[in-house]
């Protein structure tokens, strides 16, 4: 409640600030336009910095004509940063305001397309940590202290509207299915386990993270939202890079290095990272089983310890073939190793809650995975008015091997025989993606036309060998009932067209994407499944309007799909816990979601406030469904559980009371209502709550501080994951002209992260509690090879000011 109270006080400050009227003193003004065609860029993010400050003094957006204006500035030296999605950022240095010369008109500031012009230097001056657009929220990784020396998983925990569970799975608030993209391409085609990739992907290789709740037609129709991780391209002058190391009290370590060299018309960049992590945790669960003639109970107590290590290696080459042609090639190799040990105690209690049986189980696990990705993108400027053709290809292969053993004995009664089981699961995955995109300004470059097509192929082989130990012959024998091979093939052919109209402060964008899906899979048992090929259409419409130089309104509508894939279709039985088995459902159908978003943004010199309302309705929702058999065994599988209607209110904003202090926060309340013909226990509704509050402050002697607190409480089809809180704090100091930086950070300093969940079915209720070793203190050192250079922009003589 303290967190929620703080959030409401924060938004109250924003509203109070909105009513304040500034008196004009020092003024910086200008206009943001496209380098090719001089078309005005509305909604560009313009930040002004005082001196060498890392945090912006004020951040605003350009109006519908690309015009911006900062007022109430004291005499000082300033620098300006202009950024917009899809364009290279621009920095204007040494803007001097005096008592006599207090009105600086910078004239036209030209932004160039960041993909079509390799000669444009990428500016590394500080950006605002969070940028808000009509249909995307951008988290600039380089502006976060806590991001230094961390990984993609750590960063995602502090991104607005994003929630990361205990297993490292990231989702967007209010969305059941979220996809993670790397540089605009699906990462789930690149690895058999996305969390493995994110756990070792170093933050120093990441430029920004984009949160898309209603992705445009250019992106795949899969998933209700997209997290797009944009990697650094390394377009910097000369040779430069950095090396860093992080060590924590829990025994976790992280080392990373990256470097880039830029010649006259090419750029070579690479990075390497290695991470070691130790995990500890314990959990307990209590299940009550209801049957007509009896009631009995299962209580379970678990403890676990794991150790994992992995590396990530990236290499990229960018070539500006001609002024109109460019080629970008990148490769990624990822490797992970893990071993684990856990113990479980299972208590069987009768209806008088007297223990009649106690089973002890010891589990050992040893796993490794690796994946390789090759990506190439070719860009061609087709004409002088900005037409661009892009062709890309991505090929990947990965393998995963997981060996586990389960040793079960009985403390009482003693006449029950022990058992020893070994599961060897080998997974391989191959994929090929091809995309062809074309966009062109039309009608005197006022509007934008986009066309494209894509082909995606994916193959997955899952080989599970289950063996039971025979104590008489002292050898392992294959368990034919559980051993199986699963083969999955998927082909998706898609095409899209969209049109973007900008007129008098209004922006209209409409698009249609079509996807033709062909899926087949079979088992070594002889069962074959061939899903009838189906065509899906995904319309996408958005409207936004910027008015009175401080307000922005946006509305979007789209249709999305959640396709069942191998992890939900595979009927192989997992009986690692013989009282709680799980398996997939090969009869699943795709689920379609219609979703609408309405957003309103209000911006001031020191604050911004962007409330959003989202509504979605989904049919054939795919979620995990649990049932208890008369023998007391819980069986968990996936099903099209029914229909879900969801409405969400999201409040997002930031407040900067001074040039050295910045706060940002977001609060979401989501009403979900499930209805199902599958089971009456699935007819339920309830609220989900999520909140986050961040604070950063610049201190004397080149020192900075940052903190985050996050809270989540979510409902699902069969229950609720109750409230959990996690927090992080960090401080950084720089030395030697910003070439060396030291950081100390702590996560969950007030106690380990706890998780509490409740589930209910027609004949059972279950309550689970778990904790892990999330409390940690870590120390990081980072050294930059060379001083970063930025563009020099000469301030032109001020043209006549139009009133």
Automatic annotation (TrEMBL):
Residues 382-783 form the Outer membrane protein beta-barrel domain. Residues 1-22 form the signal peptide. InterPro entries: Beta-barrel_TonB_sf, CarboxyPept-like_regulatory, OMP_b-brl_3, Plug_dom_sf. This is Outer membrane beta-barrel protein. It comes from Pedobacter albus. Its main location: membrane. Gene3D superfamilies: Carboxypeptidase-like, regulatory domain, TonB-dependent receptor, beta-barrel domain, TonB-dependent receptor, plug domain. Residues 746-769 are annotated as: Disordered. Keywords: Cell outer membrane, Membrane, Signal.
């Amino acid at each position: 409640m303290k967190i929620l109270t703080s959030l409401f006080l924060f938004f109250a400050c924003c509203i109070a600030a909105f009513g304040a009227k500034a008196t004009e003193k020092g003024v910086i003004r200008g206009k943001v336009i496209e380098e090719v065609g001089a078309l005005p860029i509305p909604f560009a993010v313009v930040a002004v910095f005082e001196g060498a400050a890392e945090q912006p003094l004020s951040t605003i957006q350009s109006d519908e004509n690309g015009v911006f204006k900062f007022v109430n500035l004291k005499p000082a030296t300033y620098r300006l940063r202009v950024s917009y999605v899809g364009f290279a950022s621009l920095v204007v240095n040494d803007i001097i305001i005096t008592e006599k010369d207090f009105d600086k008109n910078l004239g036209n500031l030209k932004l160039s397309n960041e993909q079509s012009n390799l000669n444009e230097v990428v500016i590394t001056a500080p950006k605002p940590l969070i940028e808000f657009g009509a249909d995307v929220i951008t988290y600039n990784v380089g502006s976060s202290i806590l991001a230094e020396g961390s990984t993609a998983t750590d960063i995602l925990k502090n991104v607005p509207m994003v929630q990361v569970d205990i297993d490292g799975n990231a989702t967007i608030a209010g969305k059941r299915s979220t996809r993670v993209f790397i540089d605009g391409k699906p990462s789930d085609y690149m690895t058999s386990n996305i969390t493995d990739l994110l756990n070792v992907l170093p933050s120093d290789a990441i430029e920004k993270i984009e949160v898309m709740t209603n992705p445009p037609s250019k992106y795949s129709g899969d998933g209700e939202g997209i997290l797009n991780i944009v990697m650094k391209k390394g377009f910097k002058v000369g040779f430069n890079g950095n090396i860093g190391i992080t060590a924590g009290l829990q025994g976790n370590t992280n080392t990373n290095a990256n470097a880039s060299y830029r010649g006259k018309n090419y750029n070579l960049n690479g990075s390497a990272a290695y991470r070691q992590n130790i995990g500890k945790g314990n959990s307990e669960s209590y299940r009550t089983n209801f049957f007509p003639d009896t009631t009995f109970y299962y209580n379970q107590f678990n403890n676990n310890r794991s150790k994992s290590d992995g590396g990530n290696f990236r290499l990229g080459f960018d070539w500006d073939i001609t002024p109109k042609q460019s080629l970008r090639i990148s490769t990624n190799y990822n490797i992970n190793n893990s071993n684990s040990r856990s113990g479980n105690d299972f208590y069987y209690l009768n209806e008088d809650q007297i223990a009649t049986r106690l089973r002890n189980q010891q589990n050992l696990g040893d796993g490794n995975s690796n994946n390789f990705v090759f990506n190439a993108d070719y860009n061609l400027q087709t004409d002088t008015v900005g037409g661009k053709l892009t062709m890309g290809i991505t090929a990947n292969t990965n393998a995963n091997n997981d060996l586990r053993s389960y040793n079960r004995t009985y403390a009482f009664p003693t006449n029950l025989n022990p058992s020893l089981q070994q599961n060897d699961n080998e997974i391989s995955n191959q994929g090929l993606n091809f995309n062809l995109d074309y966009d062109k300004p039309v009608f005197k470059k006022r509007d934008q036309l986009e066309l494209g097509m894509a082909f995606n192929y994916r193959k997955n082989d899952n080989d599970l060998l289950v063996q039971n130990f025979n104590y008489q012959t002292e050898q392992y024998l294959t368990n034919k009932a559980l051993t199986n091979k699963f083969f999955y093939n998927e082909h998706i052919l898609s095409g899209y067209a969209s049109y973007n109209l900008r007129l008098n402060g209004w922006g209209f964008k409409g698009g249609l994407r079509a996807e033709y899906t062909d899926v087949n899979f079979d088992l070594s048992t002889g069962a074959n499944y061939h899903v009838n090929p189906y065509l899906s259409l995904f319309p996408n419409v958005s409207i936004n309007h910027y008015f009175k130089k401080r307000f922005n309104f946006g509305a979007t509508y789209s249709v999305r799909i959640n396709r069942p894939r191998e992890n939900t279709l595979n009927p192989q039985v997992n009986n690692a816990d013989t009282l709680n088995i799980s398996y997939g459902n090969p009869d699943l159908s795709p689920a379609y979601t219609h979703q609408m978003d309405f957003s309103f943004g209000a911006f001031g010199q020191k604050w911004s406030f962007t409330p959003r309302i989202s509504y979605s309705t989904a049919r054939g929702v795919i979620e995990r469904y649990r049932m208890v058999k008369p023998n007391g065994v819980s069986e968990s599988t996936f099903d099209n559980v029914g229909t879900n209607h969801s409405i969400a209110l999201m409040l997002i904003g930031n407040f900067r009371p001074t040039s050295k202090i910045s706060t940002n926060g977001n609060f979401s309340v989501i009403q979900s209502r499930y209805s199902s013909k599958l089971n009456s226990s699935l007819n339920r509704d309830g609220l989900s709550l999520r909140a986050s509050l961040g604070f950063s402050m610049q201190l004397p002697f080149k020192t900075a501080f940052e903190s985050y607190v996050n809270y989540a409480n979510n409902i699902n089809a069969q229950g609720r994951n109750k409230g959990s809180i996690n927090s992080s704090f960090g401080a950084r100091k720089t030395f030697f002209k910003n070439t060396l930086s030291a950081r100390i950070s702590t996560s969950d300093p007030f106690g380990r992260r706890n998780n509490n969940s409740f589930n209910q079915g027609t004949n059972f209720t279950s309550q689970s509690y778990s904790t892990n070793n999330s409390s940690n203190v870590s120390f990081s050192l980072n050294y930059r090879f060379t001083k970063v250079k930025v563009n020099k922009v000469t301030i032109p003589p001020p043209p006549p000011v139009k009133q």
